[in-house]
Amino acid sequence: MRRLTGALVCFYALIATPALAEAPDGLRFLESNLSSIANSSPGNIGIAALDLKTGELVAVHGDQAFPMASTVKVAVAANYLAQVEFGQRDLDEIIGGQTASQLMARMLIHSDNHATDLLIRNLGGPAKIQSWLEQRNVTGLRIDRNIADLLAAKRDLWDVRDSASPKAMVELLRRIDNGTLLRPQSKSYLLRLMAQCQTGKNRMRYLLPAGTPVEHKTGTLTGLTSDVGFITLPNGRRLAVAFFARAGTNRPQTIATAAKAVYDGFVYYLRQPFTVSFGSQYGTP
């Protein structure tokens, strides 16, 4: 019965959430601005930003595959927490001399690779996590190796293994947020840890107004800088965002600039009277 109830919760959360929609006319200026940022920056930039209430999306190179690096740790955490919900795992379980909750904190707050690999091994390896995503129709992400194997391999920033497109990453974040993948208690637990992220302070958070709520996870490889997560706007609306910068120079600054553009663009857009697809009228917050 508990499995059936969980399945129904996921089903109703899925059908109650607006489908992803391409940028409406009011957000075309933001998409154009993000394109200019990407085109003026050396290297290859991928961006996606999704309004979690309306499903409205802006993206630049949104369907390109980028190495996930440590942003994959969001999926690892979600898989573990989902198994906790069904009684198959426990946050107090001892893994490698530490509790699972301690490993989760080290993985998400400090991006500890060893803690991540202990959790991946406990879950049955990368293929098991990939299977969990596929069974829930989460597409556009590939989890092929653990972190140790990924770092030991010859580096190719265009390798499609262990990759995600910006659109796929924000879809994963959306489904974590809307209850399709995690129940509210597990979601809150995950977001609390992501809000404490100590890495990449010169990326997504850097140019946002002081005090802006951000829950995020960074990723770094030689030649790659990334940051994915959630941004809350002054009126309480929340965005799922993904920023990937491959090759080129000054990648953290590019991500910071793009994140500020996304923030400003949505703040401006939401202050204009407009009608969203389901007919609600919004004016100045």
Q: How many helix segments?
A: 10
Mean pLDDT over the residues: 89
- CATH architecture assignment name: 3-Layer(aba) Sandwich
Shape: globular
Number of strands: 11
Q: Spans with pLDDT under 50 lasting ≥5 residues?
A: 1-20, 273-285
Number of domains: 1
- Overall SS class: alpha+beta
Largest sheet: 5 strands, antiparallel
- CATH fold node name: Beta-lactamase
> Could you give me the name of the CATH homologous superfamily?
DD-peptidase/beta-lactamase superfamily
CATH class category name: Alpha Beta
Q: How much helix, percentage-wise, in residues?
A: 40-55%
Gap from first CA to last CA = 43 Å
The arrangement of helices and strands along the chain is: HHEEEHEEHHHHEHHEEEHEE
Percentage beta strand: 15-25%
Cα-atom Rg, whole angstroms? 18 Å
Which sequence of strands runs across the widest sheet? 2-1-9-8-7
Protein name: Beta-lactamase
Keywords: Antibiotic resistance, Hydrolase, Signal
InterPro entries: Beta-lactam/transpept-like (IPR012338), Beta-lactam_cat (IPR045155), Beta-lactam_class-A (IPR000871), Beta-lactam_class-A_AS (IPR023650)
Catalytic activity: a beta-lactam + H2O = a substituted beta-amino acid
